[in-house]
Amino acid sequence: MNDLERMDRHSHLHPFTSVSESRPSGRILTRASGMTVVDEKGRSYLDSLSGLWCVNAGYGNARITDAIAKTSRELSFGHNMMGAGNEYAVRLADRLLQLTDGVMRKVFFGNSGSDANDTNLKLARLYHRCRGEPDRIKFIARHGGYHGTTLATSSLSGLNGIRRSVGLPDPHYVHVSAPEIFTHVRPGRFVTEEQYADFLAQELEATILREGPDQIAAFVAEPVMAVGGILLPPRTYFSKIKAVLDKYGILLIIDDVVCAFGRLGHWYGWQTLDVRPDLVTLAKGLTSGYVPMSASLLGERLWRTLEQSAGDIGTFGHGFTTSGHPLAASAALANIDTLEQQQLLTRATAQGALLLETLLATLEDCAVVGDIRGQGLLVGVELVADLDTLRPFIEPGAFAAKVAAACLDLDLIVRALPDKDVIAFAPPLTITAQEIADIARRFAQAVKQVAKTITQ
Fold first, then answer.
1. Is residue 456 over pLDDT 50?
2. 3-class secondary structure per residue, 384-430
3. CATH no., domain 3-57+343-455
């Protein structure tokens, strides 16, 4: 163990990592470029997850790093409270709204996807209070959904791993089924995606009626579930869900933290759906992860209600010291310029199709690969114990974890998702055809290597 590893174990409490100081050492990165990262030992890896679903523009983009450096010299800090502001935050807010084609009305800045979702929960409750319905304080999300790790968003997230050790979830947060087409749309279950979408909408309505329609503030969902398993919704899912929500006066919050800024081939993931959200959560790809930043987008009916109730609300008592920080806003503006000028949204669609096609071809003879699915450059491979019956492995997630470890041995970073045997890919939008071929080759080698351990 070198000095840096020893220091890391002694001093650093890592997120989503064992608290034991005797845990195996992880990678300590020292530099990166494109989609290649290098650790302190000089070992290079192909990062097929863009860090944590965030480095959309690729590592080491000069336009973004130069913008950060220039802004740090000109305006190292400028808050946005009590009516103050800074040029970069103002320009970014306007730019983000332009990209919605007039659908959204206001932007509020934060620091992470977790706090942006927290902001949106507050805004949803405030909206209903302004309308004379203060009892609407419950939220509905989906099992397996990931929406953050604050006290509120840990309850909102549908993952037991972030809740069980701290006495959550809070009973004001309720969960319904995630859309799992691979599992449910097949003979003996739902014959078509349309029937499955009907079932999910009916389940949501039954949940609303059970909890009390006059107590539900909002429904929260990702356009494509990322951590939950790279789950694409049935084609009519969101329109059916939205009809139920409108029937009971419930807001729709779209958590677009992973899916926005080109990941699905559009500026925003919700633009691939046939619904208009009331609130949108942004982070990750907003700055391509170069600087921490998040944003909440407020829709027309929500903003109109708040504006009409300004006298009753008074000061909006919410915010953070670094909300709309000039360095972060400058990075976001440069990031958007990069995505636009390099046509990375169009590229995400084309390269995503190539990644799917290449994985399908490379893994076609692999008996543990049950499904390969995705949209844009958000792709998942679901692994099964038996291909004929699609029977899952006995211990959910264990096989995928072994595959991810085998990929690391081949200098490839992938993500084994929690509670499922699904491997996720979300590479930078700058990915090349050669890098796609390398990813598929190394991944197939890892899968087949691990599969031998259960068939021999």
1. no
2. CCECCCCECCCCCCHHHHHHHHHHHHCCEECEECCCCCEEEECCCCC
3. 3.90.1150.10
